[in-house]
């Protein structure tokens, strides 16, 4: 009786244990009273808590001390290695287990899946089926989350239907919906949803999130409306998915409606929801609302700060992004790889020798130098600063080179006019790297453009779909058109424009109008392109300037007067350009035709002294 009471007491104490020190004190008392060797239940509870609070070494010692191990002891022990990411040791424990139940199989399958070994997990699942162990609904849920082929998913679905478990289990039904949405088969996802005997808010979330995540934003919003009319209350996950759908369809009005519901339901304090709201307003071109949401939040969290920093960089408010980053550091918020990637994308717009290098040092200090996303951002940053050699050093030292890394380096060489290096790296990609995508081919065509390799560029364009499996986009055609225009082949370039889905874009219009052959060339073409640019960019001065020069060349003075009158009526004025240069820790901005600016007196005084020295040396300066 006393032993039973002690076991109950220690079981209660273990249930309320919240720290490693408390666990060690209770564990010591259990050993002292001799209960650890006689009560396997208490020993298993200690082992379970060591797996949560302690180190892997402490968990191993706790397991070794259990005298009468049962299947629960082995399952907990195997889960220790799974939780610590040591899948090799977990599999060794699985193979050594004297007996296994469905929990054992589920744990090793989930371990392989979470470690990125989906094929191994599928092999274990197949072996489970042949071992006479009946999979649980949790087993099917795990397997459906990592199947790479929709055919495998359909096979599992058929097996579930045969066993009568596909429609009766909410967990399995939700997993099937998520699997079909992930592979773009929305008809099948809706079929499962409609045939389920019982649904819950997670079922709706799976359907809405699947539609939103995989390119069907309108459908996600519509399903949310149906959910509301069906008397299902959305949770924070639902709201975040619908906010994401709203910025996907660029519908600010709908986004504001959902945001109003967010405030009314009290979900704005949820980090995921508040981050989604900031992103939604930013993507819908309402950065002021994003700032308002951020300022109203009494939350300084990594996810929220990342969303705001990303919003600033997307709206070319790089100074605000840097300032917020510094404030977040002062709040002891550790930057993530996403934070650093966003900041590196705008570092080249300031003082690359200072801020870019400082960010690179921070990357190394935080241990992110081997992260593929951060490394790719470093490559892009150095490339934009004209330091392609530094970018190549980072690329060469990367442990894992994904396609984003290859694309960043190929584009980096292309941006810096290193055509040969870009094409050579593309050749290496074809031999050793992943298959190229449309971004890769954009970089290659850009390299051909800078190298004036028209024939080679056309060759790549013609082989894109047949050899590389990439359908040409407007961006690819724009590179080819630019190449031909710069080569003086304007008429041939115009023939390339016809396949473009959205017609001739503003960039091509500017290229055509800026080419030397336009003044003496086809006036009808000049007028047509100028009208298109006015349609796309009403405040652009270029189309009016080109038309005036074209009409003056041909003596059509009435047309010149008409164009100038239109310019006056539309208040079209020349935009003053500017340039800047970073010196030490200062940024000097020079506007066009500007005589006085910050520090300008000293600059022009120095310039006058230089001109005087030049004249004293006997050189003649002509302005």
Automatic annotation (TrEMBL):
GO molecular function ontology, one term from the record: RNA binding
Species for this entry: Deinandra increscens subsp. villosa
Listed Pfam families: E_motif (PF20431), PPR (PF01535), PPR_2 (PF13041)
Entry keywords, A to Z: Repeat
Name by which UniProt lists this protein: Chlororespiratory reduction 21
Keyword set includes Transferase: no
Keyword Repeat recorded: yes
GO BP term, pick one: RNA modification
PPR repeats: 70-100, 101-135, 200-234, 402-436
């Amino acid at each position: 009786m006393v032993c039973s009471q002690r076991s109950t007491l220690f079981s209660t104490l273990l249930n309320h244990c919240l720290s490693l020190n408390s666990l060690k004190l209770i564990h010591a008392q259990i050993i002292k009273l001799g209960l650890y060797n006689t009560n396997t239940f208490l020993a298993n509870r200690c082992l379970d808590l060591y797996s949560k609070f302690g180190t892997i070494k402490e968990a191993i010692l706790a397991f070794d001390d259990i005298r009468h191990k049962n299947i629960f002891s082995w399952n907990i022990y195997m889960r220790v290695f799974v939780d610590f990411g040591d899948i090799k040791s977990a599999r060794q424990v699985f193979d050594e287990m004297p007996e296994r139940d469905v929990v054992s199989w589920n744990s090793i399958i989930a371990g392989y899946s979470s470690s990125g070994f989906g094929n191994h997990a599928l092999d274990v699942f197949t072996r489970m089926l042949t071992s006479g162990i009946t999979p649980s609904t949790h087993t099917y849920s795990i397997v459906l989350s990592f199947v790479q082929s929709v055919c495998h998913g359909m096979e599992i679905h058929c097996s579930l239907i045969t066993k009568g478990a596909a429609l009766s289990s909410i967990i399995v039904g939700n997993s099937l919906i998520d699997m079909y949405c992930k592979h773009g088969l929305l008809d099948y996802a809706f079929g499962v949803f409609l045939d389920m005997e019982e649904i819950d808010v997670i079922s709706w979330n799976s359907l809405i999130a699947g539609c939103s995540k995989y390119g069907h934003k309108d459908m996600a919003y519509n399903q949310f409306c149906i959910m509301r009319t069906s008397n299902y209350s959305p949770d924070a996950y639902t709201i975040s998915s619908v906010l994401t759908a709203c910025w996907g369809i660029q519908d600010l009005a709908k986004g504001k409606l959902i945001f109003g519901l967010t405030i009314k339901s009290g979900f704005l304090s949820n980090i995921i929801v508040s981050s989604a709201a900031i992103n939604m307003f930013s993507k819908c071109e309402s950065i002021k609302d994003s700032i308002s949401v951020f300022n109203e939040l009494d939350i300084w969290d990594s996810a929220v700060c990342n969303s705001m920093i990303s919003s600033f960089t997307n709206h070319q408010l790089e100074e605000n992004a840097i300032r917020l980053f510094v404030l977040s550091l002062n709040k002891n918020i550790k930057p993530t790889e996403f934070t650093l990637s966003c900041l590196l994308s705008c570092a080249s717009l300031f003082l690359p020798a200072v801020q870019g290098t400082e960010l690179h040092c921070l990357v190394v200090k935080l241990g992110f130098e081997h992260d593929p996303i951060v490394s790719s951002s470093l490559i892009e940053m150095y490339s934009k600063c004209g330091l392609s050699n530094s970018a190549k050093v980072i690329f060469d030292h990367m442990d894992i080179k994904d396609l984003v890394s290859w694309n960043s380096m190929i584009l980096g060489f292309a941006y810096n006019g290193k055509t040969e290096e870009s094409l050579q790296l593309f050749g290496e990609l074809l031999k050793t790297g992943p298959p190229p995508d449309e971004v890769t081919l954009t970089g290659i065509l850009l390299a051909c453009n800078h190298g004036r390799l028209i024939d080679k560029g056309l060759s790549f364009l013609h082989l894109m779909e047949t050899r590389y499996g990439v359908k040409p986009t407007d961006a690819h055609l724009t590179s080819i058109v630019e190449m031909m225009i710069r080569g003086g082949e304007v008429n041939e370039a115009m023939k390339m424009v016809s396949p473009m889905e959205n017609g001739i874009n503003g960039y091509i219009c500017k290229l055509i109008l800026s080419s030397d052959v336009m003044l003496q060339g086809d006036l009808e073409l000049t007028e047509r392109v100028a009208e298109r640019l006015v349609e796309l960019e009403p405040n652009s001065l270029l189309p009016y300037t080109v038309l005036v020069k074209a009409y003056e060349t041909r003596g059509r003075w009435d047309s010149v007067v008409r164009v100038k009158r239109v310019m006056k009526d539309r208040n079209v004025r020349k935009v003053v350009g500017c340039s800047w240069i970073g010196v030490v820790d200062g940024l000097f901005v020079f506007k066009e035709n500007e005589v006085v600016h910050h520090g300008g007196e000293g600059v022009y005084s120095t310039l006058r002294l230089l001109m005087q020295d030049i004249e004293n040396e006997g050189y003649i300066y002509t302005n």
